[in-house]
């Protein structure tokens, strides 16, 4: 099965000008383009199926890019709960080939990556926001050297996401989510959604239900208001827009 390509194809069939993430002005045309370019870049860095890429908590509108890119190429996406702090032990055990992080985590993250490098493991770090002297998202999206990514076939039981959650603080107990878990949840235990409704989505990529809701909304072309933790003024403004 090509689960990542299934999601990509669903995004492409949406009206291109329609907004997927309303309050961030991310359209259905933008989302697959940026994610696919990121996927191509990952493959250029020799990220293969079952390799791990890590997405740290962030408040960037590009939070979805490495997540979808990982799905496209069959990498295991290690997403962290917003309440989790950077942890050398987790990085040492998961050994991600690439880490995507918010600007505010740059110095701490590079300190940990230096310690990993002393243990002879190199991890590429990408910052979501533009940052001088660092690799950042727009830079890799705009500078891939090939035009096509290589789609992959995967078994339904293949792990696609590994969560590092607030209540699970060791890698041995991290939650591993296979492809079929997403497919099964598209049709059961999901709130009713259709394209003429609007969803309110809390950005916590380290939460299983949040990831399922996010993918389900994309496939059904349900636009989402994106809410970052502790921004209650933004939340009140969203509720005034009659979130359904």
Characterize the structure shown.
Helix 3 links the parallel strand 3 and strand 4 (76-80). The protein contains 9 helices and 10 strands. With 244 residues, the protein is α/β, with parallel strands linked by helices. The protein has a 6-stranded mixed sheet with strand order 6-5-3-4-7-8, with helices on both faces.
How would you summarize what this structure contains?
The chain has a single domain (3-240), classed as Rossmann fold. 37% of the residues lie in helices and 16% in strands. The protein has helices spanning 3-13, 30-44, 64-73, 88-94, 106-118, 137-142, 179-185, 208-220, 232-239; strands spanning 19-21, 26-27, 52-55, 76-80, 98-101, 124-127, 159-164, 175-178, 199-202, 224-227.
Provide tags for this entry.
Rossmann fold, single chain, 6-stranded mixed sheet, 9 helices, globular, alpha/beta, 244 residues, two-stranded antiparallel sheet
Question: What is the global morphology?
Answer: globular
Order of the strands making up the biggest sheet: 6-5-3-4-7-8
pLDDT averaged over residues: 82
Structure annotation, total helices: 9
Rg on CA atoms, Å: 17 Å
Strand % is: 15-25%
Query: In whole angstroms, how far apart are the ends?
Result: 33 Å
Q: Domains counted in the coordinates: how many?
A: 1
Write the SSE topology:
Layout: H1 3-13, E1 19-21, E2 26-27, H2 30-44, E3 52-55, H3 64-73, E4 76-80, H4 88-94, E5 98-101, H5 106-118, E6 124-127, H6 137-142, E7 159-164, E8 175-178, H7 179-185, E9 199-202, H8 208-220, E10 224-227, H9 232-239
Parallel strand pairs: 3-4, 3-5, 4-7, 5-6, 9-10
Antiparallel strand pairs: 1-2, 7-8
């Amino acid at each position: 099965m090509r689960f990542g390509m299934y999601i990509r194809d669903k995004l492409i069939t949406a009206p291109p000008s329609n907004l997927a993430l309303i309050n961030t002005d991310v359209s259905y045309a933008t989302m697959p383009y940026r994610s696919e370019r990121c996927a191509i870049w990952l493959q250029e860095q020799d990220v293969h199926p079952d390799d791990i890429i890590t997405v740290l908590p962030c408040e960037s509108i590009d939070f979805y890019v490495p997540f979808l890119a990982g799905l496209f190429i069959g990498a295991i996406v290690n997403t962290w709960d917003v309440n989790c702090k950077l942890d050398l032990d987790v990085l040492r055990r998961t050994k991600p080939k690439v880490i995507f992080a918010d600007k505010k985590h740059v110095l701490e993250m590079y300190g940990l990556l230096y310690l990993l490098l002393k243990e002879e493991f190199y991890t590429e770090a990408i910052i979501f926001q533009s940052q001088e002297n660092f690799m950042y998202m727009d830079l890799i999206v705009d500078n891939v050297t090939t035009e096509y990514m290589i789609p992959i076939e995967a078994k339904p039981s293949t792990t696609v996401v590994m969560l590092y959650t607030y209540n699970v603080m060791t890698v041995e107990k991290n939650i591993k989510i296979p492809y079929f878990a997403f497919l099964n949840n598209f049709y059961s235990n999901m709130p009713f959604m259709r394209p003429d409704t609007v969803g309110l989505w809390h950005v916590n990529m380290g939460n299983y239900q949040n990831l399922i809701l996010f993918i389900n909304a994309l496939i059904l072309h349900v636009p989402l208001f994106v809410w970052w933790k502790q921004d209650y003024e933004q939340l009140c403004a969203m509720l005034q827009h009659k979130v359904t």
